[in-house]
């Protein structure tokens, strides 16, 4: 497979029982934890996510996951795209999933370092299951027009309005103005549960997080995300969107 950012192995196997998508990473790579998280959460996010068929957790130094193969395309996030309502509906479907009693990432811990006061991260507490990585490469749209959420490397427990914020930054990076991106985020019921002050604080925390990510590894897409997150934070803190 030509796409994908984190797996050393990504391929479609054409087997006697049909096609299977496989992804893998060396067991001595720090990123192997993300595959273990994905294996852990998969039974709880079907059928929104393709079913994991098997997990080889230590074979010849590799951790490999096998998934139901889904024929589809990645959504277009650019302004005016007909895919955007489908994307928002998929985000709403994630929020409707029960949050399982598993050792998920906690939103307060994930973002605490990016608040002026770590205690301020308590605003992120909640019991909603979050995907948090709305890269368009992490979503497939099959021929039936519905969306399937893939790559559950960062399943997180927290307040429901975090996922709309994560999508919003992706939309700005894809060419939306902040106002346009917030219009799409408002289509999520969860967005309306967030006080303005919380959105302001999270926008600033997101900008700091993406700045850290881009500084550590300045790939073009990470730099675009950092720019988009700063644009959102700047708009909110300037009161443009009030």
Give the SSE order as H and E letters: EEHEEHEHEEEEHHHH
Helix content: 25-40%
Q: Summarize model confidence as the mean pLDDT.
A: 94
What is the CATH T-level topology of the largest domain?
Aminoglycoside 3'-phosphotransferase, Chain: A, domain 2
Full CATH superfamily name of the largest domain: Aminoglycoside phosphotransferase (APH), C-terminal lobe
CATH architecture of the largest domain: Alpha-Beta Complex
- The number of strands is 9
Indicate the overall shape: globular
Beta fraction = 15-25%
CATH secondary-structure class of the largest domain: Alpha Beta
Alpha carbon gyration radius: 18 Å
Amino-to-carboxy terminus distance:
44 Å
Structural class: alpha+beta
Low-confidence stretches: none
Order of neighbouring strands in the sheet with most strands: 1-2-4-3
Q: Number of helical runs?
A: 7
Protein name: Aminoglycoside phosphotransferase
Organism: Kibdelosporangium persicum
